[in-house]
Design brief:
180 residues, alpha+beta, Alpha-Beta Plaits, two-stranded antiparallel sheet, 3 helices, 11 strands
């Protein structure tokens, strides 16, 4: 039977078990998870938070991570400004990035979610409001959600991956994991 681990990756943690960068070591999955034979199915940026799926089956790992299989990944994005209907429509149709057109995303404004505080907190500007979006994509390009929101004029301030396929972050606090 395939093993699955759901991990709530905190901000500032690498989505791998080792840090190859020289200098001061950064926190990695090894600081949180002691489960030999499990590897991340995809990545989550150092400065992003939320659900990281790990598994002990290479085929399942590839199926989750490979955009060809169109596994939906949902994100809660705190963005600068308040996106209007035109910005949301652009996200829903796909936006042109330097590496090409993105697939259409599901995009909607949401109320401020009940999340844990981020350490460090996001930068706040007194003269520029912020708001939250829920974006669901079926690709996994490098920093894709951040680049998509920036392309429609609303840079991402905080990004939390809430779900991957059928799995969600429900009930996991940052740094916590559970086997499925």
């Amino acid at each position: 039977m395939t093993g699955i681990i759901l991990f709530n990756k905190p901000y500032g943690v690498l989505s791998q078990f080792t840090d190859e960068r020289e200098g001061a070591p950064r926190p990695t999955l090894a600081n949180f998870i002691d489960a030999p034979g499990f590897y991340p199915a995809g990545r989550l940026d150092f400065d992003s938070e939320g659900l990281l799926v790990l598994c002990d089956d290479g085929r399942l790992q590839a199926r989750i991570a490979n955009p060809r299989f169109k596994v939906a990944k949902s994100y809660l994005a705190q963005v600068e400004g308040e996106p209007d209907d035109a910005a949301l429509e652009a996200l829903r149709h796909g936006v042109r990035l330097k590496d090409g057109q993105t697939r259409p995303a599901r995009a909607e404004r949401i109320a401020d979610p009940d999340l844990w505080p981020r350490d460090p907190p996001i930068r706040v500007r007194k003269t520029i409001p912020d708001s939250w979006l829920r974006l669901t994509i079926t690709e996994g390009r490098n920093r894709q959600v951040r680049r998509m929101t920036a392309a429609v004029g609303h840079p991402t301030l905080r990004l939390v991956r809430w779900s991957v396929g059928e799995w969600s972050l429900d009930g996991l606090v940052p740094g916590q994991w559970r086997k499925r």
